[in-house]
Sequence to fold (420 residues):
Amino acid sequence: MAGGAAFLASTAPWLSSCTPEKLAEVKKEKARVALIGSGSRGQYHIHNLMNIPHAELVAICDNYQVNLDAALTICPTAKGVKDYREVLSDPTIDGVIIATPLYNHASITLDAISAGKHVFCEKSMARTMDECLAVYNSYVNHNVALYYCMQRMYDEKYIKGIKQIKDGLIGDVVGMRCHWFRNADWRRPVPSPELERQINWRLYKEYSGGLMTELATHQLEVCNWAAGKIPTQVVGMGDIVYWKDGREVYDSVSLTYRYADGRKINYESLISNKYNGMEDQILGHNGTVDLTRGVYYLEEDNMIPGMRQLLDQIKTKAFASIPTAGPSWKPELKSDYVPHPLVSGGISVNAGQSMISADHDGSDEILSAFCQSCITGEKADDVVGEAYSSTMLCLLGNKAMEEGRMVEFPEEYKIPYMKF
Ligand SMILES: NC(=O)c1ccc[n+]([C@@H]2O[C@H](COP(=O)([O-])OP(=O)(O)OC[C@H]3O[C@@H](n4cnc5c(N)ncnc54)[C@H](O)[C@@H]3O)[C@@H](O)[C@H]2O)c1
Fold:
């Protein structure tokens, strides 16, 4: 997939730390890693880790006994730990995988970096903009690898799609349209009421940025990856439309992000209707790439018969004057385009209900790359910059919705990585 240095530099620089040649060199060694946070996503990572030849999961840490026990059942050879500081003080552990709720991503990451551990943290980067900046600064000042689980960056269909976009497949990129629709309340069963906030952390603002930091973060990253830039402004509206069950985070959001050159990301997420599923569409003046489905569509494939006839008549100079209006014009309804695959062979398309169980969505590849970095010490280019940028945009989107106004990207949170 990697296919040369020029390709990596232009499309996915982060892959250069885990090329097949470099992997061949490390195969005999194993990264000794620990998992912190063994809930649903953490347990998914355990399954992936057990299939990575150059990884050894030596410890699992969770402060909730039920989830610790469940995780140790999957990997009984790992040591069970309740306090993550015990993991950080173990000199035999090379790196940690953090899959705790958003509100403590930053504090655990900062502690782990200070302890000299390589870190793989789940998205999003942090609950607040100040925490994002603190983590970013700590990362640039320490010689450890830091990954964020933005798995689309390691997903073959996304990589190939972005490469084709950068090669001009759809002409000029003129906009982006992303959405994620589900029909589920996001609630988890709680064995006793005092555990409500601990288990249903996603629903409360103290712990979670809601739909933005849980879902949009992946999609905004992809838009910036395609644009090679970061939006400067955002407006949006967020509401609790259907799941009025005591939650604090929106169940319905609609936002527009604007790049300095006028291009826009239109973003929408709703969790009480799933008709539209999940899509990451990059729109060009010659076509559209739908990265989620791993396909592209060309405008020329969908020329309505009247238009095709008109163009033929102009080209062949069939008449002295050509009528440009009349019964051949059809209403501009959305019509079927011919899908062209971005990758050969069967691809596994996530129906949008959950990232868990989505095979080959890049989660296993990015974890493998992290374990490789634990052995080589090599940082992955741009992963932190991408995670920082998309998390900041999510937090700014929440701010725009909460304050009911357009929000500009604040100067004090701009980092050298960002181009506007
Ligand atoms: N990349 C993706 O596609 C993807 C998919 C799902 C979830 N996630 C992310 O994974 C993270 C976890 O989500 P989840 O659904 O697994 O949540 P979860 O609630 O199921 O699991 C979180 C676990 O962390 C534990 N925990 C909390 N604080 C801790 C601490 N200080 N020390 C040790 N353990 C601690 C909890 O007890 C719990 O077991 C979130 O950041 C979420 O956004 C990412």
User: Anything to note?
Assistant: The radius of gyration is 23 Å. Residues 36-42, 61-64, 67, 84, 99-102, 104, 122-123, 149, 151, 214, 355 surround nicotinamide-adenine-dinucleotide (CB under 6 Å). Residues 383-403 form the longest helix (21 residues).
